[in-house]
């Protein structure tokens, strides 16, 4: 049965432990004018939930299909279309404008009205709820502005680095909707301001306290029972101080990146310190989850998840559900799947050898005639290569062009186009056979700790070099060493390539970017990363054709991106409606 934590926790908020809260009656239709009946917290809390329900989820978007990491055999895939030259200001599957501004409107209503609501009959608990709801609204507003900047910030015809219009008040029917874009820097300052306010108002986590001594001073003199009613474990899954700090890390990394940093000398150090704070709260470098590579398929861990609780690798996630949709879309045809996402040879080549050396390095031991032997263990975890196994019975999959099944290269519409199938994110214990089909539990992370570790490594290397420790006492080298050690890379030889890179900032930069590519593949990062690094989007997607056991590299799909597409467009309809909006350079 599908579980919806947001709805469940909303119900707990309204009912658990306090009889004085009433659910709105069925016919209680109200304008969003701030005049809420006494003891009716359900309506305003529902306004806040509109913000939660609009949070974009990177995972499962598979915008990798618009990069050098993947193609799709689905000719209607929207990211395939933009990669093939159909990306326009009026055809933009990456558009966040409508969704984000709708969420911001709801959050602005909540911020306007939160202090007028009687959240409970107990005035102390009501004050705590006001703090919490206000903190959540500020934090969510910052998150939506981050997504707007990621998707729509850019350089104008005049060369200015622009963000988006800053809407900080409720927009009523008579509001001036024709607002210009604020500078990127002004938008970032607003994001930081909202996050700082959220951090001041929220607990680090929602957990019950057994003793009032553990209640943070900022919440005043309250009893254990009062604190737990507002900030207890029943509300796990909602925005917390820990999540706010992670969002700050994500936003700061974007702002420090080449596409948006116009001379802020401290931007990289700021980004490193924000990520470092999150890592330190986690427990430091040694707290990197040992099973974090397989967070999506750790069956016992996932089955034992309490509502709102997180596995060790996950900082924030959505609700979980029992289904087989992802496997239906991506298992190979012989396992009754549609084989939709096909990893590229480009990505396969990014995986080093198990000894840590890139495949094109002298002495790596790479054998082009037997290319999957001796490789980084993550390769077979994440990508189904020819001869790899998949499905509940660990069936060997033949992707060769002369293979006997529909798994073969370009055999049927659901066959691979690259010689590879997706393995990451999929539960191999799902059975799609119509005679014995089953579901398994899945969830989507909003933020993984590995992302924050990689944020730190990238920013720390740029700020202080490979071995500069910064104020938290660990370096980019330390982080990458921990990540590669977890993966089993360089485990038997001391990882000489990493040791070499720690003496060269440029080499370490390339290694960090490659580790990010591998660790976060198929989770919706590559497209954004290439653009914020101002790297080419036009690398041809390649595959492998294996005939008579002999592999040869093939071109699969060219990319039709223009240089200005480092920045996304302002929606064309918005440009037509509002003369004050300035389009990003190159878009029409």
Automatic annotation (TrEMBL):
It is found in: Cell outer membrane. Its main location: membrane. Residues 61-211 form the SusD-like N-terminal domain. GO terms for cellular component: cell outer membrane. InterPro entries: SusD-like_N, SusD_RagB_dom, TPR-like_helical_dom_sf. Residues 324-587 form the RagB/SusD domain. Keywords: Cell outer membrane, Membrane, Signal. Transmembrane segments: none annotated. Belongs to the SusD family. This is Starch-binding associating with outer membrane.
């Amino acid at each position: 049965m599908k579980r919806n934590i947001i709805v469940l926790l909303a119900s707990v908020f309204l009912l658990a432990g306090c009889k004085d809260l009433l659910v709105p009656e069925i016919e209680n239709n109200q304008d969003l004018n701030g005049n809420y009946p006494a003891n009716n917290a359900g309506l305003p809390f529902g306004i806040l939930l509109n913000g939660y329900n609009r949070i974009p989820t990177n995972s499962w978007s598979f915008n990798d299909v618009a990069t050098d990491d993947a193609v799709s055999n689905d000719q209607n895939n929207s990211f395939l279309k933009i990669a093939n030259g159909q990306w326009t200001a009026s055809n933009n599957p990456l558009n966040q404008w409508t969704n984000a501004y709708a969420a911001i409107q709801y959050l602005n209503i909540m911020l306007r009205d939160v202090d007028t609501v009687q959240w409970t009959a107990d005035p102390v608990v009501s004050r705590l709820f006001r703090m919490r709801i206000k903190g959540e609204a500020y934090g969510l507003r910052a998150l939506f502005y981050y997504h707007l900047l990621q998707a729509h910030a850019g350089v104008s015809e005049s060369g200015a680095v622009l963000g988006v219009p800053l809407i900080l008040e409720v927009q009523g029917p008579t509001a001036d909707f024709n607002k210009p874009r604020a500078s990127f820097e002004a938008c970032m300052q607003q994001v930081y301001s909202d996050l700082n306010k959220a951090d001041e108002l929220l607990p680090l986590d929602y957990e019950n306290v057994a003793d009032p001594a553990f209640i943070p001073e900022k919440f005043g003199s309250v009893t254990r029972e009062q604190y737990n009613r507002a900030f207890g474990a029943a509300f796990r899954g909602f925005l917390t101080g820990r999540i706010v700090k992670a969002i700050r890390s994500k936003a700061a990394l974007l702002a420090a990146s080449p596409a948006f940093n116009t001379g802020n000398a401290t931007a990289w150090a700021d980004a490193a310190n924000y990520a470092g704070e999150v890592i330190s709260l986690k427990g430091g470098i040694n707290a990197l989850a040992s099973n974090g590579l397989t967070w999506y398929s750790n069956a016992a861990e996932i089955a034992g998840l309490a509502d709102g609780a997180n596995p060790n690798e996950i900082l924030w996630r959505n609700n979980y559900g029992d289904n087989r949709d992802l496997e239906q879309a991506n298992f190979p045809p012989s396992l009754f799947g549609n084989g939709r996402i096909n990893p590229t040879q480009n990505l396969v080549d990014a995986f080093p050898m198990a000894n840590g050396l890139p495949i094109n390095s002298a002495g790596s031991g790479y054998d082009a005639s037997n290319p999957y032997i001796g490789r980084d263990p993550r390769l077979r975890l994440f990508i189904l290569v020819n001869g790899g196994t998949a499905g509940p019975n660990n069936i060997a999959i033949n992707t060769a062009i002369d293979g006997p099944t529909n798994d073969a290269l370009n055999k049927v519409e659901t066959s691979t186009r690259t010689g590879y199938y997706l393995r990451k994110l999929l539960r191999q214990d799902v059975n799609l056979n119509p005679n014995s089909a089953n579901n398994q539990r899945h969830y989507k992370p909003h933020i993984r700790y590995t992302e924050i570790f990689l944020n730190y490594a990238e920013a720390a290397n740029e700020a202080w070099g490979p071995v500069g420790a910064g104020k938290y006492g660990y370096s980019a080298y330390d982080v990458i060493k921990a990540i590669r050690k977890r993966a089993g890379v360089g485990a038997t030889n001391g990882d000489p390539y990493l040791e070499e890179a720690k003496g060269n900032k440029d080499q370490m930069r390339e290694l960090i970017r490659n580790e990010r590519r591998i660790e976060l593949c198929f989770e919706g990062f590559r497209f954004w990363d290439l653009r914020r690094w101002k790297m080419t989007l036009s690398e041809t997607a390649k595959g492998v054709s294996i005939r008579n056991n002999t592999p040869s590299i093939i071109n699969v799909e060219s990319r039709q991106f223009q240089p200005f597409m480092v920045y996304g467009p302002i929606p064309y309809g918005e440009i037509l409606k509002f003369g004050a909006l300035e389009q990003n350079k190159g878009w029409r």
